[in-house]
Amino acid sequence: MTNSIFVEGTGALPERDEPWEPVVIPKEDIDAEIARLAALPRPANGRRRSYFVHPRNKKSRGLAPGIEVALDVLLPGEETITFRQNSTQVNFVIRGEGETEISGRLRSTKLHDVWNTPSMRVYRHRNTGDDIYVRLTYSNGALLDMMNIHIVEENPAPAPRASHDESEGEVEDARKKSPYGTFPLNDEGAWMMPYELLINPPSVQSPALYWPWDEVKEHLDKLEALGKDYIGRRLYLLYNPMTGRTNGTTPNFFATMTVRPPKIVDRPHRHSSAAVNYYFSGSGRSTVEGKTYEWKSGDLMLSAPGWAVHNHASFDEPVYELTIQDQPLNIAMESLLWQESLKEPPALLGAEEGFATNRADAAA
After folding, report:
1. pLDDT tens-digit profile of 206-216?
2. Does 54 map to a domain?
3. Residues sharing a CB contact under 8 Å with residue 351, sequence separation 6 or more, in sequence order
4. What residues have CB less than 8 Å from 177, skipping those under 6 apart?
5. What's the first-to-final CA gap in the chain, in angstroms?
6. Number of structural domains in the chain
7. Is there a domain that residue 311 lies in?
8. How far apart are CA 252 and CA 173, in angstroms?
9. What is the pLDDT of residues 138-183, one digit of tens each?
10. What is d(CA 292, CA 312) in angstroms, rounded to the nearest whole number?
11. CA–CA separation, 161 vs 73, rounded Å?
12. Which range of residues forms the domain containing residue 73?
């Protein structure tokens, strides 16, 4: 008798759950929740927060399986205590103005500004204006919660690290270093790496970067000049160079700013990454797996559950939106299937050649 649990899988492919349905959270509901949070007594840690949780989600606080979206509110003059966590964040201001401190560096933030908070950086937020300061905070905390490894600390003490500067007289212990290093095992490309290098990988600086809306909009609006026959999407990735080939704002997410001229309709497409849109100007509709959802300025939407066929269309005025997708994570996992047109086969982006648009033929 053992305690092992086996699930039969002989001769069968794994079953896949139905995708989570799209969800539109209307501006009116968000405004009501802002008012509710603002009316609460100030909590000890200063964080007035609620989460947008998908009705199907029973495992985390995610709006999508790997994307957590929080609504954060600070009253005039309020500030949070310091926090540190091993999840990364994308922050977006939807009302008011404030100040964010990350690793001791202060930045002023106002309406529609975006910035990232790297993992394990000490940070805090302040309201420096006369209005309520409201942010959307996107995090991979939902994924870490399901892995049971989401570590969040309040008022963290700095973590000192031992110095290994030999100029101070410290001698390297030869017992801690493998004499073999990393070496090729065969001529087919397989290598061997010793434990000493396994637990000390090369470190990459993860910067806290800011994308002020005034500067982003100047470049975004130039994309309206592309002709109506342009088949791509008029957007810019808020790119963090440390993410390299995975094209991210954080190692987990990309954040894109999109402008949709009036009466523009996207081609139906799909991707294994999930997408969450916040619309902050204009109105339109999204069609997902044949069902139509209308949205307007101030609405938040899980607009593209993973691998669901979808497209978007604007109505009679320009649309501006922030989109968060877990594309970089999927590229790193070699799982980012992308079908730019349903007439073309899907590609495994990051491992295969991707897609091209007709931008060279469109108006510049």
Report:
1. 999 999 999 99
2. yes
3. 334
4. 196
5. 71
6. 1
7. yes
8. 37
9. 999 999 999 999 999 999 987 655 444 444 555 666 666 777 789 9
10. 9
11. 35
12. 23-153+210-352
